[in-house]
Amino acid sequence: MDVTPEMRVLIIRTAKSLPLGAPRRRYMADTVATLALGQRQACDLFGWGRDTLRKALQERHSGMTCVDAFCCRGRKPAEFHLPRLLQDIKDIVQDHLQADPTLKTKRLYCRLTAPEVRRQLISRKGYTDTQLPSTKTITEKLNNLGFRLRKVAKCRPQKKYPRPMPSSPTSRRFTSKPPRRLGRCGYRWIAKQRC
Length: 195
Prior knowledge:
- By secondary structure, the protein is mainly alpha-helical.
- The protein has two domains: 5-70; 78-149, no CATH class.
- It is built from eight helices and three strands.
- A three-stranded mixed β-sheet has the order 1-2-3.
- A hairpin with an 8-residue loop joins β1 (97-99) and β2 (108-110).
- The longest helix is centred in the first third of the chain and has 14 residues, at 22-35.
- The termini are far apart.
């Protein structure tokens, strides 16, 4: 059967309007069977994938719908390829942990940055540079393990000037205070001047 350009545009638009998965594949298989096209012809005309068409025709022939495992797709986590990675990160970070200085939380803070953890994994644990994931991934692994990066809490700097002695002229004792009113009579006490 000859497919006109208007019919081709209609078939492509209808296929795109259907949700991904079994309904779209069913429509593709029905279209190919109705128009008596081969897989390669349908791929060239409509821009559909050959594997998808093969699956669609197989589903139509057998009458069983394949279940898509979308959750199994994608990149595996770094622990899948390097099973000891998380334990090695814990071993390296354990030496550099610090409790929260305010003692408000039980969270442990790490003094090592992710690039330094990566360098130590290479030098101490024998990983290669190509084996290890990126610094961003190691940062995420550190956060997932419960370690947070924070500056080391050092002692507070001392004041640059000594505490004023009571006898010094800058002491509060010698600054002039406004006289106070006492009681209802309105008398004011005036400080005696020293000789």
